[in-house]
Structures are given as C-alpha cells and as structure tokens.
C-alpha cells in the first residue's frame, strides 16, 4: 500500500507547476488522470530534449499518470469533466484565473457536483488581487517574489537558478495544501472541500527567510553576494589547486575551530574576534581569503578528505554527469533505470521523500497522448464502446 492509494486526482493544465504537483501525488499512489487537449496535448511533450518524438522531461513529469484527451472548450467536454469530478477527491488546475469559470468548470460549479472536492489552483498571482488576470510564469514569480534580486554576483545583472524553481515551489505548496485539505475533510470528518490558492510569486516570497522583518526594523535590503552567505561566516565556495571548487560551511562555532585547525591556522580558532558568528561575519573577507589561500595549495580530493576527517561540512559542485556516478546517490536509489521501450532503459530520479512503510514508486513513465482515454471513459464513467466512439467522432475526446 502507498500513502495516497485510493485518492483520485483530476489534473487540468499544462507545463510545470500544476503537473509537477500531480506528479508528486502520483508517485505516492494517487490515481492521477491528466486531461490534455486533443491534438498536441501538453506543450511539455515538446520541450527541451526530444527523444523518439517525445520530450524526456515529459516522461518524468507525467510518470504514473493516465492521459486522456478532452476538448474543454466544448459543452460536451465540460460535462464529461464534471462527471469525472463527481468521482474525484482533488482537482489540480493552473489556467489563468477565470478560465475555468468561463468553461463552467470553476469551483462553485464543481462543488455543486461534489461538495467534498478539493480544488488546487496554481497561477502567477493568485485568484484575487489587482494582478490576478495577468499571465504569470515561474520566471516572473521568481522575480517578483524577490529571489532573483538576491541571485548572482553584485557587479552583474540578476540571474536565474538553473531550474524552474518558482514552478517547483508552487507545486510543493500545492501538494502540502491539498494534503492539509484532505486531512481536514476526511480525518476531521467535515466532508467539506475547499480551494487551495497557490500563487507563484508567493511560493517564492515565502522562502526569503528574515528579509521582511530585517527590512522593517533595520532598513536592511539583501543584495546579490555571489557564492557567499551574507551575515553567516565562513560559508563560501573556494578554488582548489587543480581548478576544482569546494563548498565549505564552517559557520558553526565548534565547526569553525575544527576548520581552522585543519587548514593550519589554530590561532584563528582561539582569536576573540571569531568566537561567535557575529564577530566572524564582520571579518568574512579575511576568513575567505585565509581559507582559499589553503585550498589553492591542495587538490580537491585531498581538501575534501582533510575536511571530512575534521568533521567540517564540505562538498563538491556536481554536474548531472557527476551525480549519476556518485556512490551515495546510487546507494539511496536516487538514480534508477526504468524501461523506456522494448529495447531501451531510461535513467530517472528516485522518489523523495523516503517513506519507511508506504514508499513512493515509478509504475510507468509519462504516457502517450490520450493513451488512457478509452480506459478512463469505460472504467470511471462506464461508457460503452459506442458512446466513446461518438465522442471521438465529434472531436470531444
């Protein structure tokens, strides 16, 4: 048994945030039906690296989901979706606010059919407010959420993190909200559904640590600081003799002492200026120069061994090529091989988090467009062959 066995989810929307939330639920046993428009389906099917006609990203993002095609703009398609909602626990959607209402599929419409329905709504700016109607992508959420202002080097323009972080954060909050709503409905016994309203910019903003109270009381505005951790020292990225980089976190009081002993500066370990973080932060540049003057004299592997033996947090900066060879990743089953087709396998990430009693699993990779339409129409809605064929001839499915 998996944690979400028996939970039925209808996923409407495309690309990243909403579908990533659906993926997370599907990994832990939820029965996720993904609704795609007939024809090309989710645009993610054609994003980034396309292999054998389908995006490899899609194969991961849609794992364990069942794909059906429904024309949501048609009245018959809308009625079909409403029938499905009658059997669902959760609906996930990431259209621009107002779109589903235009199609008679808003929350007020759906809760008349199923009062216990939990509707997860992911959008750029949320379902209310003056910006609700603006289009919003993860990149804008990261920018307006404050993340990009503090990402990069101080003498260069703001930059992005190398993944769709804003979308992924919104997806995670979507799952958290859905699980809390499910608990309220089923464990508290209310039987009551609700809307989980997730805005991309808010998901990002929520991670800004103490930025708001720091600004409110001290006028402090965090800025870009490159690889250093402002106000917490020493914590940075340092170059080794062989040109490789090592990340070192020596900012705990006891850790700092061990670090200084390990790199041959015991006098710093006892220096009154460096006994607390506030003191070390005032001299962060000096400490960084001291640490890098040591790392530049040793090769990366030697530096890592010395710091490991001193019990100082340190590690490499991995590319995906490094990750697939790492013994720890392999031992934790974070690199898995799954059958792509009759002749080939595909490496995919393992499941997070690890559950001792109800672990997640990959049952199948992202399906072909509409692969499960007939199955869902017959099993969920008990349509017969003639009904399914009629809908197909009309272009509804």
Describe this structure in words.
- 38% of the residues lie in helices and 15% in strands.
- By secondary structure, it is an alpha/beta fold.
- It has 2 domains: 8-206 and 334-393, Crotonobetainyl-coa:carnitine coa-transferase, domain 1 (Rossmann fold, 3-Layer(aba) Sandwich), CATH 3.40.50.10540; 235-317, formyl-coa transferase, domain 3 (2-Layer Sandwich).
- Strand 12 and strand 13 form a beta hairpin.
- The longest helix is centred in the middle third of the chain and has 22 residues, at 165-186.
In short:
The chain is 38% helix and 15% strand. The chain has 397 residues and is an alpha/beta fold.
Ranges with pLDDT <50 over ≥5 residues? Answer: none
Number of domains: 2
Helix content: 25-40%
Count the helices. How many? 18
Mean pLDDT: 97
CATH topology of the largest domain: Rossmann fold
Sheet with the most strands: spatial strand order: 5-2-1-6-7-8
Report the principal-axis shape: elongated
CATH superfamily of the largest domain: Crotonobetainyl-coa:carnitine coa-transferase, domain 1
How much of the polypeptide forms β-strand, as a percent range?
5-15%
Number of strands: 13
Looking at the overall shape, the CATH architecture of the largest domain is 3-Layer(aba) Sandwich
Instruction: Give the C-level CATH assignment of the largest domain.
Output: Alpha Beta
Structural class from helices and strands? alpha/beta
Question: What is the straight-line distance between the termini?
Answer: 32 Å
Biggest pleated-sheet summary:
6 strands, parallel
